[in-house]
Amino acid sequence: MSGKPALRKSQTDARASAFGDGAAGDRPSDDRSVAARLFAIVDAFTTPTAAASLTLTAIAERAGLPLSTTHRLVAEWVTWGGLTRQDDGRYALGLRLWEVGVQTPTARNLRTIALPYLEDLFEVSREHVHLAILDGHDALYLEKLSGHSPVRIISRVGGRLPLHSTGVGLVLLAYAPTDVIQAYLGASLQRFLPQTVTSPDELRRRLAGIRAQGIALMSEEMTAGSSSIAAPIRDRTGHVVAAVSTVTRTTAPAAPIDPTQELAVRVAAQGISRALGYRRASS
């Protein structure tokens, strides 16, 4: 014998409960680290679908954690500033997360370089202006400029939207690596509106057209009453690293895209690309 007294079952259960593991036999063992559980709290706001705010119970269900553990970890996030508790008791992502996120080299540098061109595009179009990058199988929005009475849309800075139903998303998908395109088109694609294209074959033809024309045009595929024009942004090596777009109000079904708006988007994309060091090869 070691001479050390054995822990009684009640002591063992109390220690496990303190770390959110619970008493033996109460539920399956969760062998995730404390850090993994903390990150699961934040992931709850994006998986399986994005949510602007969640109740404590919803966070626990999405994170796969006991309610008591969730309460403790959420309190840690709130203290740090990663989550905020709203007046109705629900929780939302806090500004501290955004402050940290925009410090990543890609997001910070790209947004800083692109912002003057986005502002010029906004002054010309007076419509929503977006800057987005490919992150996994989503379009991640780094910047959004809007006027006083623009068409209502659901995009937000730091938010994600599907690739096949947004202008910037189509551009990013069109220039993505082949394996990314194949994997995306091989999955089930959600139809948000009657005009949302979900057929893999039709999308392949559409992506080929975007690569050939250097522009993506779409209307009422994500939000009713809105149309989008998007163009690729290239880095010094010529790789497409982002997309810029405007989102305008759809004036009539199947109405043609305003050529001045298309030109403005192309000019903005070319300007940002040049600022990133891209130079078109001379013919």
List its traits.
single chain; 283 residues; alpha+beta; Beta-Lactamase; six-stranded antiparallel sheet; 17% strand; disordered N terminus
For this structure, what is the CATH class of the largest domain? Alpha Beta
Silhouette: globular
Mean pLDDT: 85
Gross CATH architecture of the largest domain:
2-Layer Sandwich
CATH 4th-level superfamily of the largest domain: GAF domain
**Straight-line distance between termini:** 84 Å
Tell me the total number of β-strands: 8
Order of helices and strands: HHHHEEHHEEEHHHEEEH
Multimeric state? single chain
How many discrete domains? 2
- Please outline the major beta sheet: 6 strands, antiparallel
Topology:
Blueprint (H helix, E strand, L loop, with lengths): L8 H10 L15 H10 L12 H8 L3 H14 L2 E3 L5 E3 L1 H7 L3 H21 L2 E8 L2 E8 L14 E3 L4 H8 L3 H9 L13 H14 L2 E4 L6 E9 L5 E10 L9 H17 L8
Antiparallel strand pairs: 1-2, 3-4, 3-8, 4-5, 6-7, 7-8
Helix pairs in contact: 2-3, 3-4, 6-10, 7-9
